[in-house]
Amino acid sequence: MKKVWFAPLNTLNTDEVAAKVMALYEKAEIKKILAKDEYTAVKIHFGEKNNTGHIRPDWIKPLLKAFKETGTKPFLTDTNTLYRGERQNSIDHLLQAYEHGFSIENLGVPIIIADGLLSKNYSEVPIKGQHFQTVKIANDILHSHSLVVLSHLTGHILSGFGAAIKNLAMGCAPRSGKQIQHADIRPQVTVEKCRACGLCIKWCPKDAIVIYDGAAKIDTEKCYGCGECIASCRHQAIKHSYADSSVNLQEKMAEYALGAIQDKEGKVCYINFLTHITKECDCVNKAQDKISEDIGILASYDPVAIDQASLDLLQDKTQEDILKRIWPNNDYNAQLAHAEKIGLGSRKYELIEI
Ligand code: SF4
Ligand code: SF4
Q1: Closest-approaching ligand to the CA atom of 83
Q2: Does one domain contain both 218 and 331?
Q3: Is any ligand 2 atom within 6 A of the Cβ of residue 85?
Q4: pTM of the full predicted structure?
Q5: Residues 6+ apart with CB under 8 A from 85
Q6: Residue-wise pLDDT tens digits, 305-340
Q7: For strand 39-43 and strand 2-8, is the pairing parallel, antiparallel, or unpaired?
Q8: Which terminus of the chain is more solvent-facing, meaning fewer CB atoms within 10 Å of its CB: N or C?
Q9: Which domain covers residue 236, as residue numbers?
């Protein structure tokens, strides 16, 4: 049974959230994965423009200070996105992080976009997977000695939910690695629902959509399955075609997650924030309503255990499997089951409330 430490929260008061994060740091003894003069990548999502659900910089300020006191060299990090937005290249990404308060002046640690200016800074990492024998991992995460993965639990339009596993999988991959994970997603337009508003055209990074005969039409040769059109359509006129595509995506995610932590045994820790949980992820360019009361923060050394515990706590809080209700075609169990099968971690856990 893998240990998962849980600090419940009733408020998102900054001092209280930061204190709970520090309580987890102490109880889970996170210090033990850090060492003097080593590089510590602190993986986070800075939040897309207009997103308000992301982890707040001031929540982790004391944590980063504690990291520095061990003598390790921490830096905040993320990788560039596949979709068209404010985090598609390192310059816009850094400016967006700064806009959300993630600055060296505020936090005392630098930010490094781990896959480089144009997302070409990565290595092929060998793994023993079902879909992949190598995965592409951003070099500045790969070359760090230790990794602390800070994840905000949300629902997800393609994978049902996203937390620690997804943060490792998509979050540590360059754009080309993200693209390979998405390759089975085939969006389809329901012509009767389409209002020809053109919003999906604006967001498609591959210019794969045109309005034809009064409705959106997708060029399947150009489309690489990022799912942005599905997320951007306000009329539910685009769906991905098969439930299988979600399963494949999730299994590929689990394998990428495995690659992201290769050679880091005993040097990776996960912290999940069950705060302002939303239907869609923090890549969405808008403020979203929360779908649950705030629950708390969890820490673990096992990405599968912490995600399973996070989902169980969400189910307890909402008294239903709310993510399955919201995303009925994306059974999120696929990523947990495959992750367990390939040895990423265990779904069995012991919850230690602090
Ligand atoms: S965003 Fe939706 S409604 Fe608008 S053109 Fe695209 S598919 Fe049609
Ligand atoms: S058409 Fe394809 S490439 Fe364009 S937004 Fe949709 S999924 Fe992404």
Answers
A1: 2
A2: no
A3: no
A4: 0.90
A5: 48, 49, 283, 285
A6: 999 999 999 999 999 999 999 999 889 999 999 999
A7: unpaired
A8: N
A9: 187-240
**Same domain for 256 and 149?**
yes
Q: What is the DSSP letter of 116?
A: -
Q: Token digits for 44?
A: 């986070």
DSSP, collapsed to helix, strand or coil, labels residue 7 as strand
Q: Is the CB of 233 under 6 A from ligand 1?
A: yes
**Beta strand residue intervals within the chain, DSSP E:** 2-8, 39-43, 73-78, 111-113, 122-126, 134-138, 146-152, 154-156, 160-162, 187-189, 209-212, 215-218, 238-240, 268-274, 296-300, 349-353
Question: Domain check: are 93 and 216 in the same one?
Answer: no
Structural domain tally of the chain?
2
- For residue 318, the surrounding DSSP H or E stretch is helix 303-318
In a domain, 181, yes or no: no
Residue 331 included in any domain: yes
Residue 135 shares a structural domain with residue 16: yes
CA distance 104 to 163: 25
* Residue 7 included in any domain: yes
**Do 319 and 339 share a domain, yes or no?**
yes
Ligand 1 center to 199 CA (angstroms): 6
Instruction: Take residue 79 and report the two structure tokens written for it.
Output: 């990788």
Q: Which of 84, 191, 194 to mutate to test the pocket of ligand 1 (most atoms within 8 A of CB)?
A: 194
230 shares a domain with 298 = no
Locus of tokens 């102490």: 26
